[in-house]
Specification:
By secondary structure, this protein is an alpha+beta fold. The protein has 2 domains: 159 residues, FAD/NAD(P)-binding domain, CATH 3.50.50.60; 164 residues, D-Amino Acid Oxidase, Chain A, domain 2, CATH 3.30.9. The strands form 4 sheets. It has an 8-stranded mixed β-sheet with strand order 6-7-5-15-16-17-14-18, sandwiched between helices. Strands 9-2-1-13-20-19 form a 6-stranded mixed β-sheet, covered by helices on one side. Strands 3-8-4 form a 3-stranded antiparallel β-sheet, covered by helices on one side. Helix 1 runs parallel beside helix 5, helix 2 crosses helix 5 and helix 2 crosses helix 8. The chain is globular. The structure holds flavin-adenine dinucleotide. Flavin-adenine dinucleotide (FAD) binds next to helix 1, strand 2, strand 3, strand 14 and strand 18. The site of flavin-adenine dinucleotide has 37 residues, from helix 1, strand 2, strand 3, strand 14 and strand 18.
């Protein structure tokens, strides 16, 4: 049987693309250098935030709204809990990028939200300490996702629906050939009509000729003990982002282990080589999050209980990279700049739509790799 599509990378985006390809009845092969749910890329660390009033831009909102039911479909198919709605708090100065951006998205899309002043926020969410000039934008459409479980669920469903998944093998080349594409991996050449590349932090290494202006950034996550764990449980502690005027924002997620809440700093990490990441976490790595906890989260002890290193793959504008790039018949879905997980099931659908149909009903035009072509750095396929 001729393979319709090869998906390179079965991490966050690739596992979802493989799932969608299999759901469409395509003959699909996934190739993953490790195994689904591994801890060396971007899709691990117990929890991921989803939120709908998206400060990064109202254009993301329809994609989130499309992703949410897909998360529920994957849960139902896999019989696994992947998404717990908690609501969300965007905290910061009202005119800051976070609060004003979230409000703009909420208004543009008629999303239910409330702006709480410091006193009201303290009464309803005493886990946070707000400065006098800060507000908290509360939105209902936010929650916590389970990344490793979700990736394994999507990959597992893909295989159950007939996809082949090759693990422990690294793709070393993607070339055009008469039938579409030839993909070299572990001494084997896999041929298919099309390829979808979801290589995350390894994208620049896999397709160096594109000259994509990507950076891989080391990120440290830390978990802090809660004095009263029930106050940080998902039913009482919404996911949050806290805009810290001029410094990288802090964010946090509820205690999923019944003891510790995750708090980390968004960006501000050092550049990394995905094949040589320093995974030893030092006190200096966690000091910014610990200081934030000490200042603003009275119910948490600012002593790190556990920590982990993960990778962001950033574009210069911090928007995604989705579309044709490189050899003909190759679609890239990657470089989610530290905020892509929540979109994964819809991005998987988009990837298959673009690869197979050449178009998608979802608006992803703003993520085209061609936007970097003006600088002469990308040659879109
Ligand atoms: C600390 C941290 C916190 C985050 N928090 C959030 C959040 O709260 N909400 C949110 O929406 N997003 C969040 N993100 C971002 C989100 O997790 C990423 O955008 C997303 O996981 C990126 O998925 P990906 O598929 O591009 O990369 P990955 O999940 O890393 O997948 C890439 C896969 O490709 C494989 N691969 C690469 N090269 C090859 C090759 N040559 N051959 C075979 N296989 C290959 C890799 O092994 C890997 O499995 C966070 C990220 C980090 C690091």
């Amino acid at each position: 049987m001729t393979t319709d599509v090869i998906v390179i990378g079965a991490g966050t985006m690739g596992s979802m693309a493989l799932w969608h390809a299999a759901r469409r009845g395509l003959a699909a092969v996934g190739i993953e250098q490790f195994a689904p749910g591994h801890d060396r890329g971007s899709g691990h660390g117990e929890s991921r935030m989803t939120r709908t009033a998206y400060f990064e831009g109202p254009e993301y909102v329809p994609l989130i709204q499309a992703a949410l039911p897909l998360w529920r479909e994957l849960e139902a198919e896999a019989g696994a809990e992947l998404l717990t709605m908690t609501g969300g708090l965007m905290i910061g100065p009202p005119a800051g990028e976070l609060v004003s951006g979230a409000l703009r998205s909420a208004r543009a899309h008629g999303l239910a939200c409330e702006v709480l002043g410091p006193a009201e926020a303290a009464a309803r969410f005493p886990q946070h300490r707000l400065a006098a000039d800060e507000v908290a934008l509360w939105e209902e459409g936010a929650g916590v996702l389970r990344p490793e479980r979700a990736i394994r669920a999507a990959a597992g469903r893909a295989v159950a629906l007939g996809a082949e998944l090759v693990t422990g093998v690294r793709v070393t080349a993607i070339e055009a050939d008469a039938g579409g594409v030839a993909v070299r991996a572990g001494g084997t050449v896999y041929r298919a009509r099309r390829a979808i590349v979801c290589a995350g932090p390894w994208l620049g290494r896999l397709l160096p000729d594109l000259g994509l202006p990507l950076t891989v950034e080391r990120q440290v996550m830390a978990w802090f003990p809660a004095a009263d764990p029930s106050a940080f449980a998902p039913d009482r502690f919404p996911v949050f982002v806290h805009d810290r005027a001029g410094r990288p924002a802090a964010y946090g997620l509820p205690a999923l282990d019944g003891a510790t809440a995750k708090v980390a700093i968004h960006h501000g990490g050092r550049l990394a080589d995905p094949d040589a990441v320093d995974r030893a976490v030092t006190e200096a790595d966690t000091a910014p999050a610990a200081a934030f906890v000490a200042q603003t989260m009275p119910g948490l002890t600012p002593a790190v209980a556990r920590s982990a290193v993960c990778l962001y793959t950033n574009t210069p504008d911090l928007h995604f990279l989705v579309g044709a790039a490189g050899p003909p018949n190759v679609t890239v879905v990657s470089a989610c700049s530290g905020h892509g997980f929540k979109f994964a099931p819809v991005m998987g659908e988009v990837a298959v739509d673009l690869a197979v149909d050449g178009r998608t009903r979802h608006d992803v035009a703003g993520f085209s790799p061609a936007r970097f072509a003006a600088s002469g750095r990308v040659s879109p396929g």
